[in-house]
Amino acid sequence: MSGTPPSPERARRPRPGKDWVDVTRDPVTGIESIRAHFTGHAYDPHFHDAYLVGVTEQGLQEFSCRRALHRSTPGRVILIEPGEIHDGHARDEAGFTYSMLYLTPSWLAETCARAADGRFPAHPVGFSATLHDEPRLAAAIRRAFWRLHAPESRLARDEALDGLAAALNPLIGASVMTRMGEAAARAARRARDLLHERLEQDLGLDELSQRCGADRFQLSRAFRAAYGLPPHAYLVQLRLAAARRRLAAGEAPADVAATVGFADQSHLGRWFRRAFGLTPAAYRAMCTNVPDGQNRLR
């Protein structure tokens, strides 16, 4: 197999004024590959439970992350940790196109362990910065992306992922979210853990603050300072992350909405589209090839 990404003729080209999202999910590694084009507003602030590793292909891609505004141009590498709040929008009518890999934490931890003679890191790993000008890494990301997004052989996929791991290794360090958690108030950490444990339940702020040993105003301030969102917005993001996992496994959107705590399917759909730029049914169809009849961006 060729060691280079497909030619531009094989890749979907931006269409003026049209937004689109293409998603695939590798069944062996669990890694998702997403290629998308957006004009204007792309998605609201949200986070993922995966490591995002991608490259801007075309246009000016603007997004907020780590309490700063970032501008990514063609060829620049974007690295985002699990739990990091980010959004996205285009500066001009031409929009932007990007390719992104959603790496599972287990895959990245194993990658770090191989680089450290089999010793797994004591804490979650992270990235030294959000944007990088690293041509070698950008090439490795593009190669791994196309080996997963347009599958060839298992050997080609494995070699491309090994190349990605080698290119990522110099930029891996302590997780930003881990450092933020250590600096956060104890009440905020307790609240975060409780939201993870009871994401499908309708917790009130009074109950949450009582369980965390702080008044509701102190808790809200500490939580926002530590995690970048107030508790309710953070809970919505937890539910969206859980919904993605269930949809990718083939569960029906209505069942997913009820299981993870949304009021109904339309409630899930509104939040999902705002965060990820496509409907739950479209995401499920792209990941599973289940014929929902709704497998297009709307």
UniProtKB/TrEMBL annotation:
Supply the source organism for this entry: Stigmatella aurantiaca (strain DW4/3-1)
Task: Write down the InterPro entries for this protein, in alphabetical order.
Answer: AraC-bd (IPR003313), AraC_XylS_family_regulators (IPR050204), Homeodomain-like_sf (IPR009057), HTH-like (IPR037923), HTH_AraC (IPR018060)
Q: Which GO terms describe its molecular function?
A: DNA-binding transcription factor activity; sequence-specific DNA binding
Q: Where is this region: Disordered?
A: 1-21
HTH araC/xylS-type domain residues: 189-286
Q: Which Pfam families match?
A: AraC_binding, HTH_18
Q: Which UniProt keywords apply?
A: DNA-binding, Transcription, Transcription regulation
Checking PROSITE patterns in the record gives: HTH_ARAC_FAMILY_2
Q: What is this protein called?
A: Transcriptional regulator, AraC family
